[in-house]
């Protein structure tokens, strides 16, 4: 008898898992409580996969042998509770797909920087002639790539939601870029539950595996003091108080891994900002562990083009620079963005607040921000936090309006920065949609 695989959610990870499940001989059924996008319906129908939308039919879901839950679906929804009550395993796409991979996976998580680090790491390894795919929380689904069987090894960007559904999966190399409060609405507003979710990346690792992490991050340092892990630790630090792993000396990245010393002056990195120095250090550590030549690492770090929607320079109009940082969906990401501003800034902020604490931005806003443009359905928290800090505060309800107001306020030499510090779901489909609308509005000025 075929094992029954039920997939909750008919998006990128759901459809990828359906294709892989069918290929591996499962009886597959996809159930989406919302509506499935036309492009995904076409793939499911074309591959003769059974699916439903707008409901979860209990008789067709609760007879599963195993369930893959898409990362966007909350653990607290009724159907998931019913599955768990019946003892049916509910896992993530990462867990399901990893059992069919023989090669090495590099798993990258963190509250911020994980997308840039994943794409940068993939770039370096690909330049080093590895047959490597990039998946997870970025680009295509991991399961879909495994089904295509094009790649031997994988770089995976892993969100806390994807790690929540991991049972046996272990990356050979794990990276934690940093940890700061995010998605607390999904973790009962308990920071320690979110931290624990991130550290699931190392829970199955052995002494033959590696954990690369930011030694300057207090949350990470404290967790590692209080919890034992088996993986070999490789810290990276800007402060220079570590001489193991990767550190900075005389404005140069110095890395000692596998008895190989690698150095690269910071000013040769293509990405600007302190946070990007850290992202480059993490990518370097992975590349050295994967035995990539030093020259290749150096060239790759100096020619990398950056990530869309992450401090992306859009246009300069009348000597005002417009920057798209739509991917900043929490205050920590926005902290890095504001920290890297060198001119008076008109800041476009707002969206769905995930339990933000704006206090950590106060000093930067005081120093760098001349005006705030709120772009969200409910802006009360932002107004309360910064109303007395900046001279100009404007509420807007569309991206076009926000950009036009910004143009009016900005003077020669200023920067207009979209760095929302919030999720996008009140006015936009997702952060990409928000960033694309920003770029379109700027181009129409």
From TrEMBL:
EC number: 6.3.2.9
Biological or metabolic pathway of the protein: Cell wall biogenesis; peptidoglycan biosynthesis
GO molecular function: UDP-N-acetylmuramoylalanine-D-glutamate ligase activity
Family, as annotated: Belongs to the MurCDEF family.
Keywords from the UniProt entry: ATP-binding, Cell cycle, Cell division, Cell shape, Cell wall biogenesis/degradation, Cytoplasm, Ligase, Nucleotide-binding, Peptidoglycan synthesis
Job description of the protein: Cell wall formation. Catalyzes the addition of glutamate to the nucleotide precursor UDP-N-acetylmuramoyl-L-alanine (UMA).
Subcellular location, record wording: Cytoplasm
Main subcellular location: cytoplasm
Protein name: UDP-N-acetylmuramoylalanine--D-glutamate ligase
UniProt-listed InterPro entries: Mur-like_cat_sf, Mur_ligase_C, Mur_ligase_C_dom_sf, Mur_ligase_cen, MurD
Domain Mur ligase C-terminal stretches: 309-422
Highest taxon in the source lineage: Bacteria
Catalytic reaction list: UDP-N-acetyl-alpha-D-muramoyl-L-alanine + D-glutamate + ATP = UDP-N-acetyl-alpha-D-muramoyl-L-alanyl-D-glutamate + ADP + phosphate + H(+)
Domain Mur ligase central: 108-287
Binding-site residues, ATP: 110-116
């Amino acid at each position: 008898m075929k094992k029954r695989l039920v997939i909750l959610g008919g998006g990128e990870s759901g459809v990828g898992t359906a294709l892989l499940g069918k290929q591996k001989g499962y009886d597959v059924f996809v159930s989406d409580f919302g509506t499935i996008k036309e492009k995904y319906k076409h793939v499911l129908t074309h591959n003769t996969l059974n699916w439903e939308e707008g409901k979860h039919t209990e008789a067709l879901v609760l007879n599963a042998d195993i369930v893959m839950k898409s990362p966007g679906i909350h653990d607290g929804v009724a159907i998931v509770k019913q599955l768990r009550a019946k003892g049916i395993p509910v896992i993530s796409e990462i867990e399901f797909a990893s059992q069919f991979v023989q090669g090495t996976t590099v798993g990258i998580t963190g509250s911020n920087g994980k997308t840039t680090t994943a794409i940068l790491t993939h770039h370096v390894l690909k330049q080093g002639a590895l047959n490597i795919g990039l998946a997870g929380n970025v680009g295509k689904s991991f399961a879909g790539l495994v089904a295509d069987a094009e790649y031997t090894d994988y770089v995976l960007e892993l969100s806390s939601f994807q790690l929540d559904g991991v049972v046996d999966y272990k990356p050979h190399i794990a990276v934690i870029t940093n940890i700061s409060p995010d998605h607390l609405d999904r973790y009962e507003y308990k920071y320690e539950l979110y931290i624990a979710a991130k550290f699931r990346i190392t829970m199955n690792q052995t002494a033959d595996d590696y954990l690369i992490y930011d030694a300057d991050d207090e949350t990470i340092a404290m967790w590692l003091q209080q919890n034992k892990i088996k993986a070999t630790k490789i810290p990276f630090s800007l402060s220079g108080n570590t001489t193991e792993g990767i550190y900075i000396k005389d404005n140069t990245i110095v890395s000692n891994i596998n008895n190989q010393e690698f150095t690269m002056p910071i000013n040769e990195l293509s990405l600007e900002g302190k946070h990007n120095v850290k992202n480059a250090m993490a990518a370097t550590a992975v590349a050295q562990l994967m035995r990539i030549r030093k020259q290749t690492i150096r060239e790759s770090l100096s020619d990398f083009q950056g990530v869309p929607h992450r401090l992306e320079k859009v246009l300069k109009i009348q000597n005002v620079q417009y920057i798209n940082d739509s991917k900043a969906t929490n205050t920590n990401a926005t902290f890095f963005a504001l920290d890297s501003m060198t001119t008076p800034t008109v800041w476009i902020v707002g969206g769905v607040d995930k339990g933000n604490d704006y206090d950590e931005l106060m000093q930067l806003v005081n120093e760098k921000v001349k005006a705030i443009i709120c772009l969200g359905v409910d802006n009360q928290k932002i107004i309360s936090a910064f109303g007395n800090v900046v001279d100009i505060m404007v509420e807007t309800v569309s991206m076009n309006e926000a950009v036009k107001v910004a143009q009016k306020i900005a003077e020669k030499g200023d920067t207009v920065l979209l760095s929302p510090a919030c999720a996008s779901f009140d006015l936009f489909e997702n952060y990409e949609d928000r960033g694309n609308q920003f770029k379109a509005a700027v181009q129409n000025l």
